[in-house]
Every structure is written in structure tokens, then in C-alpha cells.
């Protein structure tokens, strides 16, 4: 683990940040924490725990990409010869043994730019939204097109692609993965637990905003990389348009001429949920989880549509969209004790 550094980003993560930093400090590694305007004592906590803190200028538009790039720049100051960097979100903690395992893999594969493992939810049964996230994180091992914000990255590859795209308010991780692959780097997901994530999502409104952000990312990703050979998120955008725009327009447009018979098309939504659930059940999900996932996919088309429309409207008018935050400053898991 020579010349390995840690970059964590966060805002008002409360006790989740304490767990995050506790999982990485004490390994004789440089740890950089990038804060984006916390008001809960996160900056003071990080400094007490031994992290080097970068406080972003919040008069400029914030994106997670900007935070990670700022952390990498600070890490280079601490160790100009840094070879690898583990990025981690402030609501995650790194599992013991992950850094050693990931470094061994990337050291043995000079063609690999990034290594990721399994991110799982710390409290999957706390809410249906946490459960959905845990299902979402469960991805197979092997070569991947991209990975999440928790990832071990080769510094030379990161420099070659000039880091994250700071202009993206969502979808910055897939964008980085695409640019790695365009430079003929590989991305690996290995069969090892990497991080525990604390979603702490308990309200439908939070899930709706998160799904809205996903729709925005789908639309922007398809606009940037939708042409061959990537065809990035083209299928997702087509699904959004079909289920979120075309079918509702047909139902409403034909309601009067058909004397309401067109509303029978609404049955397509539960049938689609059942089809997704059946497919996920065959893939190994428990029946309860498969039905939950199927229902969430179908209902999620509507906030996805809202997010996609937000992107298309912003692109048409030239207006920059603000970060779609599904957490909010009041969503910290537990308020930090300033005397701890």
C-alpha cells in the first residue's frame, strides 16, 4: 500500500462521517476530507481524527465531482508520488481488509485503472428505500463499464483523463468510467466487500428526488455518449420516454374518444412490474425483494421523467441546473457531539 491515499467527501453526514474516517485513519496513510458546507461540526471532527480538511468555496456551484477532484489535488500535495487513491463517500465506511485486497489486485494488473468491490447497506431493513439501495449495489464481479463513488483508482490513469467532470451534477462516476475505457484502461469489480453504506433514507420524497437525479443523469449521459459505440443509457432514456411520456399521453389523449377505455392501458404498469419481478426472481432475488424492486422500477419511471425533462429544459434554455440533493442538511444520521 505504498503511496496510497484516501479522499472522502461529505456534507452534514453526522455520525456516518465518524465511522467513515475511523475506517481509514490509523493506517499510516494520508487522509483528505473534502467538506461542502457542513454545519454539523464535520470539519472539526475530521481535523480531530487526523484528516487533512479541504473546505470548498460554496460560492461556486458544487458537484461531487468537484469535491473528489479537490481531494485528489490536496492528496498530491501531501504525497507528490501518490500511485493509488481510494475515493469514499462520507456516508460509507471501508471494510477491514479491502485496501490491502484492492491494492494487490491493481498492482498485479497494470492495465487496470480502477478496482471496486461490493458496496452494501449497513441497515438494509431500516426502510424499503434502504432495501432497494442494497439490491441496487449488489453487482456481479468481473470487468465493469463503471463503478460507484467508492473506488480505488490508479493515480496515473486519473491524471490522464483529467479527473472527474466537474460540470456534471449527476452521473459523474459512469462518465469517468467511459473516459477510462476510451483510453484503453480496464475497470474491475472483484468479489470482496468494499464499503458499508448508510443510506438513512426514510421518506418517499427522498427516494423521489434521488430517482429524479437518476433521470437527469440518464438524459445527460445519453446526450454525451449515446452514439455508437457506447450507446450510453440510450435504452434507459427510451424506457423513460415510453413509460413516463408516451403511454400517459396515449391514455389521456384517447380518454374522450374511447369513453375511458384507454385507461385500461394503466394495467401495463403492474404487468411491467410483475415481469421485472419475475426476471429478478430467476436471477436469485427473494420473492419479496423481487416484487419490491419491480414496483420501484415502474414507479421510478415518473421521477426519472421529471429529471430527464429538467435536463432537456436546461439544455434548451442554456440554464445550469442546481445539484439535486436527496439528503438535505437535516438528514444526518445522528447529530455530532461537539465534545466527543
Can you characterise this structure?
This protein has about 350 residues and is α/β, with parallel strands linked by helices. The protein folds into 2 domains: about 5-200, Spore Coat Polysaccharide Biosynthesis Protein SpsA, Chain A (Alpha-Beta Complex), CATH 3.90.550; about 210-315, no CATH class. It contains 12 helices and 9 strands. Strands 1, 2, 3, 4, 5, 6, 7, 8 and 9 form a 9-stranded mixed beta sheet that branches. Helix 2 links the parallel strand 2 (about 30-35) and strand 3 (about 50-55). The two termini are about 30 Å apart. Residues about 330-340 have low confidence and may be disordered.
Short description:
The protein is an alpha/beta fold and 340 residues long. The protein has helices at 15-22, 42-48, 64-78, 98-108, 128-137, 155-160, 172-182, 204-225, 234-253, 268-282, 287-299, 301-317, and strands spanning 4-10, 31-35, 52-55, 84-89, 92-94, 112-121, 142-143, 151-154, 186-197.
Amino acid at each position: 500500500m505504498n503511496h496510497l491515499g484516501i479522499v472522502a467527501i461529505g456534507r452534514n453526514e453526522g455520525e456516518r462521517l465518524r465511522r467513515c474516517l475511523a475506517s481509514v485513519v490509523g493506517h499510516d496513510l494520508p487522509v483528505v476530507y473534502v467538506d461542502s458546507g457542513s454545519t454539523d461540526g464535520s470539519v472539526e471532527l475530521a481535523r480531530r481524527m487526523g484528516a487533512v480538511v479541504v473546505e470548498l468555496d460554496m460560492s461556486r456551484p458544487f458537484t461531487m465531482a468537484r469535491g473528489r477532484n479537490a481531494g485528489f489535488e490536496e492528496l498530491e500535495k501531501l504525497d507528490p508520488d501518490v500511485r493509488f487513491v481510494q475515493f469514499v463517500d462520507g456516508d460509507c465506511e471501508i471494510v477491514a481488509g479491502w485496501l490491502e485486497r484492492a491494492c494487490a489486485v491493481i498492482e498485479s494488473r497494470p492495465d487496470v485503472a480502477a478496482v471496486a468491490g461490493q458496496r452494501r447497506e449497513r441497515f438494509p431493513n431500516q426502510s424499503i428505500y434502504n432495501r432497494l439501495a442494497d439490491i441496487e449495489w449488489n453487482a456481479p464481479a468481473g470487468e465493469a463499464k463503471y463503478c460507484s463513488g467508492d473506488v480505488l483508482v490508479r493515480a496515473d490513469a486519473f491524471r490522464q483523463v483529467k479527473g472527474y467532470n466537474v460540470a456534471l451534477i449527476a452521473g459523474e462516476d459512469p462518465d469517468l468510467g467511459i473516459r477510462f475505457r476510451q483510453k484503453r484502461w480496464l475497470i474491475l469489480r472483484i468479489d470482496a466487500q468494499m464499503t458499508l453504506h448508510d443510506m438513512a433514507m426514510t421518506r418517499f420524497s427522498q427516494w423521489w428526488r434521488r430517482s429524479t437525479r437518476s433521470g437527469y443523469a440518464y438524459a445527460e449521459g445519453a446526450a454525451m455518449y449515446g452514439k455508437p459505440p457506447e450507446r450510453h443509457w440510450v435504452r434507459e432514456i427510451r424506457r423513460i420516454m415510453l413509460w413516463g411520456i408516451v403511454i400517459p399521453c396515449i391514455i389521456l389523449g384517447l380518454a374522450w374518444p374511447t369513453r375511458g377505455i384507454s385507461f385500461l392501458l394503466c394495467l401495463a404498469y403492474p404487468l411491467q412490474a410483475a415481469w421485472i419481478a419475475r426476471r429478478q426472481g430467476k436471477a436469485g432475488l427473494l420473492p419479496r425483494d423481487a416484487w419490491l424492486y419491480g414496483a420501484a422500477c415502474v414507479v421510478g419511471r415518473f421521477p426519472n421523467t421529471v429529471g430527464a425533462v429538467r435536463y432537456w429544459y436546461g439544455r434548451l434554455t442554456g440554464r445550469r441546473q442546481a445539484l439535486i440533493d436527496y439528503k438535505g442538511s437535516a438528514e444526518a444520521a445522528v447529530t455530532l457531539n461537539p465534545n466527543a
